[in-house]
Write a structure and sequence with these properties.
Structural class of chain A: mainly alpha
Protein name (chain A): Rod shape-determining protein MreD
Strand order of the largest sheet of chain B: 2-3-6-5-4-13
Strand content of chain B: 35-45%
Structural class of chain B: alpha+beta
Family (chain B): Belongs to the MreC family.
Protein name (chain B): Cell shape-determining protein MreC
CATH class of the largest domain in chain B: Mainly Beta
Oligomer: heterodimer
Radius of gyration of chain A: 14 Å
InterPro entries (chain B): Cell/Rod_1, Cell/Rod_MreC_2, MreC, MreC_beta-barrel_core
Helix content of chain B: 10-25%
Distance between the termini of chain A: 10 Å
Largest sheet of chain A: none
Keywords (chain A): Membrane, Transmembrane, Transmembrane helix
Number of domains of chain B: 2
Number of domains of chain A: 1
Number of strands of chain B: 13
CATH architecture of the largest domain in chain B: Beta Barrel
Chain lengths: 148, 206
Amino acid sequence: MKKSNFFVLLLIVLSAVLLQNTGFLNVYGVKPNLVMAVLISISFFAADLASYIFLAVAALVGLKFRAGFEIESLIIIGLSLASFVMGRRLQWKPFINNAVLIGVGTILFYLLAAPGFIASNLPIVLGELVYNVILGTIIFKIFESSHG
Amino acid sequence: MSKYLWILITVGLVGSVFFGNFLTAAKNRLAAVISLAPFEKPQTITQNGRQVVVAKIYSTFPYNYRNLISLNAGLTSGVKSGTPVTVDGNILLGKVIETATDYSVVQTIFDKDFSLSVRVGSRQIEALLVGAQEPRLTLIDKTADIRENDAIYSASADFPYGMKIGSVTGIRDSAASSFKEASLRLDYQFNELKDVALLSDWHEKK
């Protein structure tokens, strides 16, 4: 798969970070994990692991909300790196790999960050899962078509 | 050479992610631009004999499972950890849980970790407000005469006593439960809030 310009990817990641810090994408109380969806989608288009790690860390700097260590940072870094590796190994079509990784990533994020939230707010988690997959698929398709 | 530069930059960013918050205020301002919130300094006014800091909501917690907001008022505006946060100076919204020089983080009543002792209606029925995307009242005595539209007031030492939160709706009295429960009707739309009022002299007056 043809690789994208690093600075284009960085711009997209930073835009996603800013959007995720606002309530703009909030639909019926469900906010997408846009940054995770973007990071997983662009993992298919990043030139190499080093530049991808840089993008993931830059995203987390922007998502940092409180002082001190945030477990979400560690989880998103882990999920992003796992998707970078897994996306290249899964045998389905790339856009299906992308959707599966975003769906699994959403569930894993909650299992690791706030497992109790899944049981008490299942409709929100499922809504976010669908929302993330839709946004991630759109981003993936835009990248794919822009690369001919 | 460029490889080492990338490593150096990444290590620096990793350090800032895990240990620093020096970029948070700048990020909040950028989020405010996206939200079309004007760059205004927080204003300190006097309302009903109280000192109130009117602050802008600059960003919201990026994930669904917490409901925290970040304001453009911090230590320089007299905001401290524990400062009560209200919608218009009269309706309780939450409390400050973290402050920096020029921003603060607020835990709202919609946060899953928020809970508060409250009194309901003119009969002063005791209940516990439990934070959630749709906050609810729990631990209401089975025999309590709680009614629709009864006003809900704060009854915790952490907040001004008798500050309004909302009103009662959707009372549930299940045989399987030892207590009644109820939902809250609020006089505002949380997603449409742009400003909040912080009772900055609350701790001095307490």
